[in-house]
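Sample entry copied in:
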Amino acid sequence: MQVAIDGPASAGKSTVAKIIAKNLSFVYIDTGAMYRACTVIARNHNLDYGNEEGILKAIDQDGIELKSENGEQKVYSAGKNISLEIRTPEISANVSQVSALPGIREKMVALQRELAGHTDVIMDGRDIGTTVLPDAEVKIFLVASARSRAERRLLDLKERGIHTDQTVEQIEADIAARDYKDSHRAVSPLRKAADAIEIDTTNLSIDQVVEKISEEIEKKSKKL
């Protein structure tokens, strides 16, 4: 079974996807982390974030690996664990530009489909239900207010031990700007698949969102 969870930045996609994957013994793939890794690679090679050819060459040189360690997905590039680096404010501010490059998206989508293979998988991102796994049996589209997502992002940074001088208002503005970029890019823009179930997580706890999505997976499983 393939489960696709899409939605804007900090809507809670990765958090709930990880929990559900663990509960159901599904393979979890965080596609956003892959685009963030591309952005880290571009920065490490001192490349302009719009330099598609240069970034593609750097990705081929450094590589991107997703590894499961102690039940957590870790991201490696050039033999180094970059799981914390990919969450820093600088990378968050520039990942939309990198992920909008057609060549980058083509390369990552091919890798994502390869990773999905023929196993039970739950994958989250922005174009999973529309582009990466268009035939997914369950498609979820999470939404939440920009303010609540900014508060979550700030809390997440603190919990990861990543320092930021940004206020919640600045993060909210950044998130709103990223929403616009992601939904207006030419290739695979952020949008809800026609057959996706929309869930507003603004006033829901993580457990409540997990329960709602798990119910949808169970319903679909009974029909297969």
Notes: The radius of gyration is 17 Å.
